[in-house]
Amino acid sequence: LPLPAPPPEQARSRMAHLATRTAQMASLAALPRTPAGSVGGGADMLRTQPSKAACAVKVAEGDVLAAVESLYRDELRPFGRILILRLAERLGGDAGHAPRIDVAHLRRVCESCRRLRVVADGAQYAALLAGWPERFVDPGSNEDPFPDSMWAEADAFFRGPAADAVYPGGRYACAKAMVDVGIPFLAGRSLGQVCHLVQLAISRRRVLGFHGRSIVPFERSEPAIKERCARER
Predict the structure, then answer these.
(1) Rounded Cα distance, 214 and 197, in Å
(2) Which residue of 44, 209, 217, 225 is 20 to 30 Å from 119, comparing CA positions?
(3) Rounded to whole angstroms, how far apart are CA atoms 95 and 184?
């Protein structure tokens, strides 16, 4: 059940604080992306700047199991690329200092672990916990399970307190940044649900959009800017 609304003064103060925190995401968006061979490549990579001389980290089985369990709690299917991101987060702290994971070694650890079941999933693999129920969110689904009231809150938030927010360009990284700053309408939702919300906010709801490699409120996105230019001609 939703919590009762805070007093207007407290709500305004919280919105101002969140606006400041979300604006700080611009620094993440400005960082260069990790080379594709180091942590799996793709739009959801952590943005890191590892030394070329740095050795890839060979993760231990216990670290892999803990990371997989955390993805289950987040309702995210533990694909290899997502598992790499989660391990980098857990072993390296913030995104700017995330270690480079030895991808081949990770796959071998998953395949040799008795508590994990590695399954091929298209061109990638998933490391599933043996005997655990698979209750994962599909972030790429076009089905919208979120109520209109939540979308109204999201639209108001990104037009108002967070109008200047800038988030990392990957769906996972964007969702993680939003959860980390504690956006009110996301309270109680898993990271998997927020990943799905980000996808829908961009592809269907016109709440968010891309500006370069970053995700921003739709009114500041490239599609919105092009639409305004077309109307002014």
Answers:
(1) 16
(2) 44
(3) 23
Percent of the chain residues past pLDDT 70, beyond the cut: 75
Distance CA 158, CA 214 (A): 15
Q: Give me 177's structure tokens.
A: 């940044």
CB count, 10 Å around CB of 201? 23
pLDDT per residue over 135-150, tens digit each? Answer: 999 999 999 999 999 9
d(C-alpha 203, C-alpha 107), whole Å:
32
Longest dimension (CA), the chain: 64
Reported pTM: 0.76
Count CA within 13 A, CB hemisphere, residue 173: 30
In sequence order, the 6+-apart residues with CB closer than 8 A to the CB of 196 are: 137, 138, 139, 141, 145
Nearest to 115 by CA among 132, 134, 136: 132
Structural tokens at position 29: 């968006």
CB distance 199 to 175 below 8 Å:
no
Answer whether 123's CB lies under 8 Å from 76's CB.
no
Strands 116-121 and 124-129: antiparallel
